[in-house]
Amino acid sequence: MASGHRVIALVWHQRTSAIDTRERLLGVLTSGPDRAVLATCHRIELYTALSGATDALRIAAALGVPERDRATMSVFEGPAAVAHLFSVASGLDSAVVGEPQILAQVRRACASATHPALVAVLARALHVGRVVRADNDLTSTRSVGSLAVDAALASVRDPRHATVLVVGAGEMGKLALRALVPRVGAVVVANRDIARAEDLARTYGARAIPLAGVPGALDAAEAVISAADTRGAVLTAPLIEQRLRRGPLTVVDIAVPRSVDADARALLGPAYVSVDDLPGARARVADATVAAALALCESEAIHFCETRSPERAAAIRELRDGAERVRVAKLARAMKRLGHLSARDRRIVAALTENLTRALVHPPTVAVREHGEDAAARALLGRSPR
């Protein structure tokens, strides 16, 4: 990585870390200029770029990660961290292989990052994610939302005449709603922002209500899909207990942190399904295709790290600094002969030299980054590096 920085990824995934752990970490880990947090239904990951040898456990401790949660943390460093990020962005590490939502989540994760090495690897991850999907036909119409619908309807006797309540009109709520409408008799969508719920309801043919209307809607619902960050404030134990007196109810909770009160989860028993209980889906993607996509992520990661080695970064700095020294010296000499120019004309000439220097230095800069120091001379001569 540039300037000797290496990328480190601290990862807590559903495969190794319980949902309790991931809920706790959501309140601990935050994005910032030197780090990016990627939080989805099944994972919470932190990416940072550091120089020198720094122990990952010390990084986690400095960030406030409790000791018990460090025990289930997976650590990736250097090319392995970059390859992991590339595979995540490609949808290869998702519950639904090839799902498209992860690209937007990676983009949001890098919103506050300003560290050059971190910005570079996140931007590259978005590019690689798109390339890997296109080259391997990794596109899926399935999502966590549609998996939730399958789970919710599995115990509904006659879905075509059933009413299902969706709590939350965000991305996951929208995906669940879209998958639900063709399969059930009626869908009610509840949201804190009623205008958002109404827009979604109009689009998919559902009925919108505010969160305050959930108790009434629950009476008529045979299943609930909750995708809202309500943390037990809406789907409470008293409300669930009252509803269960009328008959069975399935609640699929795809929110992290979970949106169903802990006592309510206990009342529901097996009829409560968390995001960790949902099965994955590969959707006609062969093992060989996944293996080839992972291999591409690894090769792209190695290439990315090699092209941003400290040696090449130093060579690029030397190239640019040298060009700037020549520009400044030549400009000063020329200005002595152009004393008749106005201040405005002098600024125009100075800007011209800056633009010209940048244009001339760009090809050798790219050549050094991609092929090494000896490629700069060939680029200056107009010959492509091998």
Task: Sum this structure up briefly.
This protein is an alpha/beta fold and 386 residues long.
| CATH architectural group of the largest domain | 2-Layer Sandwich
The parts where pLDDT drops under 50 for at least 5 residues are none
Shape: elongated
Whole-number count of domains: 3
CATH topology tier name of the largest domain = Beta Polymerase, domain 2
Residue fraction in strands: 5-15%
| CATH homologous superfamily descriptor of the largest domain | Glutamyl-tRNA reductase, N-terminal domain
The averaged pLDDT comes out at: 89
Alpha plus pi helix count: 16
How does the helix and strand content classify structurally? Answer: alpha/beta
What is the end-to-end distance? 22 Å
Annotation, overall tally of beta strands: 10
What spatial order of strands do you see in the largest sheet? 7-6-5-8-9-10
The major sheet is characterized as: 6 strands, parallel
CATH class bucket of the largest domain = Alpha Beta
Order of helices and strands: EHEEHHEHHHHEHEHEHEHEHEHHHH
Describe the structure.
By secondary structure, the protein is of the alpha/beta class. It has 3 domains: 2-140 and 285-307, 2-Layer Sandwich (Beta Polymerase, domain 2), CATH 3.30.460; 144-277, Rossmann fold, CATH 3.40.50; 310-380, no CATH class. Helix content is 51%, strand content 14%. It has helices at 19-26, 56-62, 67-70, 79-89, 101-109, 116-136, 144-153, 171-180, 194-204, 214-220, 237-244, 262-268, 287-307, 310-337, 343-371, 375-380, and strands spanning 5-13, 35-39, 43-51, 74-77, 163-167, 186-191, 207-210, 223-226, 250-253, 272-274. The strands form 2 sheets. The chain has a 6-stranded parallel beta sheet, sandwiched between helices. A 4-stranded antiparallel beta sheet has the order 2-3-1-4, with helices on both faces. Helix 7 crosses helix 8. The longest helix is centred in the C-terminal third of the chain and has 29 residues, at 343-371. It is elongated and about 95 Å long. The two termini are 22 Å apart.
